[in-house]
Design a protein that fits this description.
Blueprint lengths: L1 E4 L10 E4 L7 E5 L2 H11 L9 E4 L7 H10 L6 E6 L7 H12 L3 E6 L6 H6 L4 H13 L2 H15 L15 E3 L9 H5 L8 E7 H5 L4 H12 L3 E7 L5 H14 L3 E4 L22 E7 L3 H6 L6 H12 L4 E15 L4 E8 L1 H19 L7 E5 L17 H14 L11 H9 L16 E4 H8 L4 H11 L8 E2 L2 E4 L1 E4 L2 E5 L9 H4 L9 H13 L4 E5 L20 H6 L4 E6 L3 H11 L1 E6 L11 H17 L3
Parallel strand pairs: 1-2, 3-4, 3-5, 5-6, 8-9, 8-10, 10-11, 11-12, 14-19, 14-20, 20-21, 21-22
Antiparallel strand pairs: 7-9, 12-13, 15-17, 16-17, 18-19
Helix pairs in contact: 1-6, 2-3, 5-6, 14-15
Length: 637
């Protein structure tokens, strides 16, 4: 086996021995929670010079028995006091705990406490100190905060390491509290003093553990980005939204401030399968799931999957049960500093500014959509076209897409949206669309175009994309002048306007290719005409919301990460932070999840159509009738 230097957030090969690079110390604290370790490392900077030597580490850094044995020999067997805080009890780190208990029999002071809020009698029984002492240390860690961490270290040094430092009993932190960067015990009035009149309030929910760990810099940065988007932030720290008292206090603050949008960073789901009718929040506002990734930014950037399995479960799949809108990562765990006093890395959430700006703008657009008069809203309905033949325009699975689109347009019209000149039925709608340009290249030059995008405007927008995206499109498709949708210095946009509401045909993912083969191609970058379509919607038409009608379009299948997209992932680069609604058949949640996770879609499920006899129609029906008549005539004498 190889001896390798262990680093926070880096997974070592299974056949290696982790070396934490630590020297012996009188006091060693092992915690599974990065927040505890970061807080203790920060407090250790302020300890007096004569404080006992201290080492901090995580059991997760010792992935196998050989690594544990090496750390015991190098560090633990020299310690006078060993404090271990683990999630999941003895089973989480059984071999390590067994080795530490052996050291306790040899004279070391051993204290084992839970890493969460639940008492663990099995851990307590393995300690060789009084139950009162282990309970006190557990409460220091459980309540968190710099004062409790300082008193924890002072208490250990005074009780078992022959020092005499002042310490007091653990101080409880409220289960739900308002956070403010300039006020230790913040109230709504502190934030009201910072808010701009008339701006919508955006509640930002995050775990109280970040306050306990002093790990709130990323929250403060996110609040600044929300303010830059014209929102009034209200950061609320919660122990758990599953606790009735926590949720009640959160909802009281939401009501008191007339919150317009909720940005939630807590994991898991509030929903209870036993009570599916209960809503997670009583306010009728969007809830955006902003992702605080547990992996490092480097791991995320290098991964085609994007987020790791822990984040996928905790921050995506389970929150989807509450109907939250999945957005983008706003922070990543990473090494913020090195604590020489404790010989450990300080791991914190580090803000990801592109993700924060994306989520902040998406939140602003949802609030604007709610506040804007219906008569002033611009909505676009997008009809899928797969394969890219005219006979397949609006091919939603299990949905009469033309009729459904017309029903949506009529409903918008009844609600005062700027919709005019609607056709009488879905068939007429399709025929009107066929009167203009479509994805059919054979007849493209013979058809008129109702709207287009100037080449200069497109090139200006194209230049704003990440350099790697620009290069990929140019290498695959050449300059925009070579695109089939280019005509007379402009890029044509397929679709029609009914008043100030647009119905468009989603562009093809490519041309002169096998459309069926490339529809789900994970590597094929979209051509200029595809980019121009959504560029026109976002910049020229200035759309407020999109409705992709029916399963399914191709936007959510463009290249990029599977979940937790970056600014370079094609769905994100093309769609941007736009509200996106998606009527989708209820019996295909897998492909619906693709749209939710990669295009921040609100899925509106529709039922499967009832089964009936297909029968024949049109010329086939006429031919069948003639055949029946011929057969009957042949039977006559």
């Amino acid at each position: 086996m190889h001896l390798l230097r262990a680093q926070a957030g880096v997974t070592l090969p299974a056949d290696s021995i982790a070396d934490l690079g630590q020297t012996p110390a009188e006091l060693v604290i092992l915690c599974t929670g990065d927040s505890h370790l970061s807080l203790l490392a920060e407090v250790a900077r302020e300890l007096p010079a004569d404080f006992p030597s201290l080492r901090l580490a995580s059991p997760a850094q010792l992935p196998n028995h050989a690594s544990v044995d090496f750390y015991v020999e190098q560090v633990l067997r020299h310690a006078r006091v060993i404090l271990i805080s683990v999630h999941g009890g003895v089973s989480y780190w059984r071999y390590g705990i067994e080795r530490v208990v052996e050291l306790g029999r040899l004279g070391a002071t051993i204290i084992l406490v839970p890493g969460d809020d639940r008492a663990d009698p099995e851990l307590s029984e393995l300690s060789n100190v009084a139950s009162e002492d282990s309970q006190r240390l557990w409460q220091y860690l459980r309540q968190g905060g710099a004062d409790n961490a300082r008193h924890l270290l002072h208490c250990i040094a005074s009780r078992w390491l022959d020092r005499d430092y002042p310490w007091s009993e653990p101080r409880a932190l409220p289960r739900t509290l308002i956070h403010h960067p300039r006020h230790a015990e913040a109230t709504l009035d502190h934030w009201r003093a910072d808010w701009q009149p008339g701006r919508p309030v955006a509640a930002l929910l995050f775990y109280r553990a970040q306050v306990q760990a002093g790990n709130t810099a990323f929250v403060d940065t996110f609040c600044q980005r929300l303010q830059a988007q014209g929102l009034n932030p209200l950061p609320i720290a919660v122990a758990s939204l599953k606790e009735a008292e926590c949720l009640a206090q959160v909802e009281a603050w939401l009501d008191e401030t007339d919150t317009a949008v909720i940005l939630n960073t807590t994991g898991f789901a509030q929903s209870n399968p036993e009570s599916p009718q209960e809503r997670p929040f009583r306010r009728d506002v969007p809830v955006l799931q902003a992702l605080c990734a547990l992996d490092s930014e480097e791991q995320w950037q290098a991964s085609a999957q994007g987020l790791g399995p822990r984040d996928l479960a905790m921050h995506v799949a389970l929150p989807e049960l509450d109907g939250r809108l999945i957005t983008r990562p706003i922070s990543f765990k990473g090494v913020a500093a090195r604590s020489e006093r404790s010989q450990s890395d300080v791991v914190r959430y580090r803000p990801h500014l592109p993700g924060m700006d994306f989520v902040a703008e998406l939140a602003r657009r949802w609030t604007r959509l709610a506040a804007k008069a219906n008569a002033d809203k611009r909505v676009a309905l997008i009809l899928a076209n797969y394969p890219t033949r005219d006979g397949r325009i609006g091919n939603g699975v299990g949905l009469d897409t033309p009729a459904a689109a017309l029903n949506i347009l009529r409903a918008l019209q009844q609600q005062g949206y700027p919709v005019e000149g609607l056709p009488n039925d879905g068939t007429t709608l399709i025929h009107q669309l066929l009167g203009g340009v479509t994805n059919d290249l054979d007849n493209l030059d013979l058809r008129p175009c109702a709207q287009s995008l100037a080449l200069n405007d497109y090139q200006r927008w194209f230049a704003s994309l990440p350099a790697a995206n620009q290069r990929a499109v140019t290498e695959r498709w050449g300059p925009p002048e070579q695109d089939p949708m280019y005509r007379s210095g402009r890029l044509m946009i397929a679709g029609l306007r009914f008043g100030l509401t647009f119905v468009g045909i989603q562009p093809a993912r490519g041309y002169q290719l096998d459309a069926a083969a490339v529809y789900h191609d994970p590597d094929l970058v979209p051509p200029h005409s595809y980019l121009a379509f959504y560029c026109w919607l976002r910049t020229t038409f200035a759309v407020d919301a999109l409705i992709h009608v029916g399963k399914h379009g191709n936007l959510e299948w463009l290249p990029g990460k599977s979940v937790g997209l970056s600014e370079a992932c094609w769905p994100s680069a093309i769609l941007g932070p736009l509200p996106n609604l998606y009527p989708f058949i209820v019996n295909d949640p897998g492909e619906g999840a693709q749209a939710k996770r990669r295009t921040q879609a609100v899925i509106l499920d529709h039922l499967m159509p009832p089964l009936t006899r297909a029968e024949s129609y049109g010329p086939l029906r006429d031919l069948e009738r003639l055949a029946d008549e011929y057969y009957e005539a042949s039977q006559l004498d």
